[in-house]
Amino acid sequence: MENTHTKAQLDQSDLEILEILQQEGRISNTALAERIHLSPPACLARVKRLRARGIIRGYHAQLDRSSLGLDNLCFIELSLELHQPEHMQQVLQRIVAMPEVLECYHLTGEYDYLLKVLVANTEALHDFISRQLIPMPGIARIHTSVVLREIKTSTNLPL
């Protein structure tokens, strides 16, 4: 994991590479090099260095969830009954294994965890909550919010 001084260690060419790759992950090295005014070998060396440092963690295809019949995006807040590390680890192992859970965050405040969950429809959401979350040992409270409309969604980091 990079420390908080990482951005200061990146020069303008590194930042330009990262900006472009966030938008166009499949751009060729030659095209990328041309856009940032570097030679292709110099550009490739920078990209390899950014990957080696863990700044570039990977590449992926961004899929349209509605086209795949996954129309019900929701956020589920969970509170645990017990907060011993071993109990929390057991709950997290189960949550991480659930393919419907896209993201999971440990929170401060009223709830312990926030899950970003994607399912096909309200029936699938009902099944997910009643068959996977409610029976899970140690869950004290569940609060679900269904997304009506996405206003902004992005994977791009502000550089």
Explain what the structure shows:
There is one protein chain. The protein has 159 residues and is of the alpha+beta class. It has 2 domains: 9-52, Orthogonal Bundle (Arc Repressor Mutant, subunit A); 66-146, Lrp/AsnC effector binding domain/regulation of amino acid metabolism (RAM) domain (Alpha-Beta Plaits). It is 38% helix and 19% strand. It has helices at residues 6-9, 12-23, 29-36, 40-52, 85-96, 122-133, and strands at 72-80, 101-106, 113-119, 139-146. Strands 2-3-1-4 form a 4-stranded antiparallel beta sheet. The two termini are 17 Å apart.
How many structural domains? 2
Q: Assign the CATH class of the largest domain.
A: Alpha Beta
Strand ordering within the main sheet: 2-3-1-4
What is the CATH fold-level name of the largest domain?
Answer: Alpha-Beta Plaits
> Which regions have little confidence, pLDDT < 50, spanning 5+ residues?
none
Radius of gyration from the alpha-carbon trace, in angstroms: 20 Å
Helix-residue proportion: 25-40%
Distance between the termini: 17 Å
Broad structural category: alpha+beta
Characterize the overall form.
elongated
- Proportion of residues in extended strands: 15-25%
* CATH-defined superfamily of the largest domain: Lrp/AsnC effector binding domain/regulation of amino acid metabolism (RAM) domain
